[in-house]
Design brief:
Layout (H helix, E strand, L loop, with lengths): L4 E6 L12 E8 L2 E8 L4 E10 L2 E9 L8 H10 L8 E6 L1 H9 L3 E6 L6
Parallel strand pairs: 5-6
Antiparallel strand pairs: 1-6, 1-7, 2-3, 3-4, 4-5
Length: about 120
């Protein structure tokens, strides 16, 4: 079993905070998949994530803020940037949060719907 997570949903608008000085946001969409990343002035990736919209569901995935860049609001900027690419206003926003991400998502209005577990076979 992999570490447990939390299946979460979010409704309503997401406020887009200002990007802290010294970082730049890059967002690209190819077909239905959006990839966003926040990089330093030197080009180091500080945070990144993906989203896809399909069948009235908008899924956030692989949202990561590197340890050296946490507690600066980058996760909030990243989530808002991905959400801005949502095409359907009726699409339900979903994600699976780790224990580390749970507080951030809850502060953005996400609600836990259920625990989430993943098993792997080796």
């Amino acid at each position: 079993m992999l570490p447990g997570g939390f299946f979460m949903t979010q409704e309503g608008s997401l406020h887009a905070p200002a990007l802290p000085a010294g970082y730049r946001l890059e967002v690209a969409t190819s077909q239905a998949i959006t990839m966003a990343r926040i990089v330093t002035g030197e080009g180091t990736v500080a945070a990144s994530g993906h989203a896809v919209e399909h069948a009235r569901v908008f899924v956030f995935d692989r949202i990561v803020t590197e340890a050296a860049h946490r507690r600066r609001g980058l996760g909030r900027v990243l989530i808002a940037a991905l959400a801005a690419r949502q095409r359907s206003g009726s699409a339900r926003r979903v994600l699976v949060a780790t224990e580390d991400g749970l507080k951030l998502y809850a502060s953005l209005g996400w609600q836990v719907q259920s625990p989430y577990s993943t098993a792997t076979m080796t």
